[in-house]
Amino acid sequence: MDDSRIIYDYLKRYFGFNTFKGNQEEIIRNVLAGRDSFVLMPTGGGKSLCYQLPAVIKDGTAIVISPLIALMKNQVDSIRNFSTSDNLAHFLNSSLTKSAITMVKQDVLKGQTKLLYVAPESLTKEDNIEFLRKVEISFYAIDEAHCISEWGHDFRPEYRKIRPIVDTIGRSPIIALTATATPKVQHDILKNLDILKANVFKSSFNRPNLYYEVRPKVNTTKEILKFINGNQGKSGIIYCLSRKKVEEIAQILQVNGIKALPYHAGMDSATRTANQDKFLMEEIDVIVATIAFGMGIDKPDVRFVIHYDIPKSLEGYYQETGRAGRDGSEGRCIAYYSYDDLQKLEKFMQGKPINEQEIGKQLLLETASYAESSLCRRKLLLHYFGEEYKPDNCESCDNCLHPKKEFEGKQYVVKVLQAISEIKEKFKADHVSKILTGINSSAIKSYNHHKLDIFGSSDGKDEKFWNMVIRRSLIAKLLFKEIENYGILKLTDKGREFINNPESFMLTEDHDYGEVAEEEGYRGGAGAVDDELFSILKDLRKKISKLKNVPPFVIFQDPSLEDMAIQYPITIEELQNISGVGVGKAQRYGKEFVEVIGRYVEEKEIVRPQDLIIKSVINKSGLKVYIIKSIDNKRSLEDIADAKGIEMNDLITEIESIVHSGTRLNLSYYIDQVIDDDHQDDITVYFKEEAESDSLEDALEELGNEYEEEEIRLMRIKFLSEFGN
Predict the structure, then answer these.
(1) 640-649 contacts: CB < 8 A, separation 24 or more?
(2) Do 541 and 490 have their domain in common?
(3) Which domain holds residue 340?
(4) What is the pLDDT of residues 479-521, one digit of tens each?
């Protein structure tokens, strides 16, 4: 049966290969010999062949237990392509109709099916158990076996039931396979399946073709767009924490000309499948997916995997990055890291059993350690999976290519530990960092912590620095967060010992990526204003204002001109992305501005920062839409404010924002009721003939005490809407 000629003949006939990869042949021979096997093989190593080939060779039907319905279909289609008969492989899961299930069972009972893929949920159904008891089973293959362990990145309780069900159906050899498993998870799998004597086959977790990088979560959307535009036509996956963020990122990519689609569990099955197929068929380049939802995509040429949000475990991170470069060619893995993301994941755990919280907390600490460490990322990942990577420099991760500066930090660690001890180990990280920095918040005062000697003893370091020291102390197990009241910092025995006998503790100085605000409303930006162009644009604005007989600020305000002198927009479409412009103003006044900027760019041979200009998804804010519709229907502003539960002052601010973006609103129906004609005329004349800017303070000072601030604001809205939009 295990004759080499037969094995290689089947390998060529059914799978089109002449040789095996890694330890595939050894594993296949073990399965053919009827022995239990445990296979630890990273993504791209060829796990599937380890059970598909022996299934085709052996008598009977192999039962393949897999949690991913999408992957089942993918693998069944793949096997059928190498066969003249579709009966060779089938799947049995909730996506099939009753008639389809009947047909599958008939093929299996006739002995025509060599591989039957079953979801673990389907395996627990009584009628399926009864059916499988009639089948000659060659062996059981348990794919994604890490799902058995609570310490695995994708724990599924139904996987715990596999062994008892196998015993009920009838014992046959078992092969358990996983792409990621720490030593703890490996033991859990072997113990739960009762195959502690199985032959264990471990492949190296090192994926030398993958490049690993962690970036700070700053202007992330802009960074991602810049990266994808520099890798046009390449396939990639972007992982996000929430379904909402998946939809948002997919939409932003689409409006910026990138072929992208979303993929998450909240979508209807047909749309999700269609989106996956478009990715596989290369109709789109990028798929945006939730971290928590397994994609089951067996695509060999994924050239990049981007984590918009950091995953909740290093196993999850390794599994997802493993989708890149499965063909052995280039694969770039970029993760955006913010400690806020980990805090969000911690909050999601609240309310779960204490044991689950404890496990989740440990996994998050490992992720934080990986993200913040200055060590070789490959070395860290392989160590996590119980494998030693000996070279000091892998030359294929950000930390090795751009080493971070380290400094001795034991005195800072001691200060943090002493502070926590002094406040009786009853407070959270933010409170401790505020004490050390000297921030006199209400919480600090209420506990009289501003009177402590340690208050403000920060050595000139800020809150961010102290929070970093606290996190590193948590990672080093000098501190822990209490489970019952999660977040409260407690000293470990190791931490108490550290206070008395401090040892060298190296802290990392992160790369200086610049403190730029995250992308809410981001329009480009941190570049220096081109003073010469700014002056030219001001002259042009003045010329147009005389021609149109309106004040210059009605056309474009100074901040908009400054942004133009940073971004150099040369089309109306690009001008719409400039701060304070919007569609209306760009169409009304933009032509001459973009022509002048275009000539200037050409003459000066300026390289424009196009990667900083991101097309925004149109603001679909419900409040703004409601206000515009209500004003169109001539509702009083008081009614609008009451309906939305906001103050009149806030409503006027929203209306100002709408008008500044170029939307024309007619408030005359309301203004005529609340402002007398003389006041209306005076304020209009002021803005049209006297005002140098639209400053409210200047208007109040010039017009005098008899004019209310609210009426000046309303008339300014009317004026800008009529003359500017």
Answers:
(1) 648/710, 649/710
(2) no
(3) 210-350+371-391
(4) 987 765 656 899 999 999 999 999 999 887 654 433 433 443 3
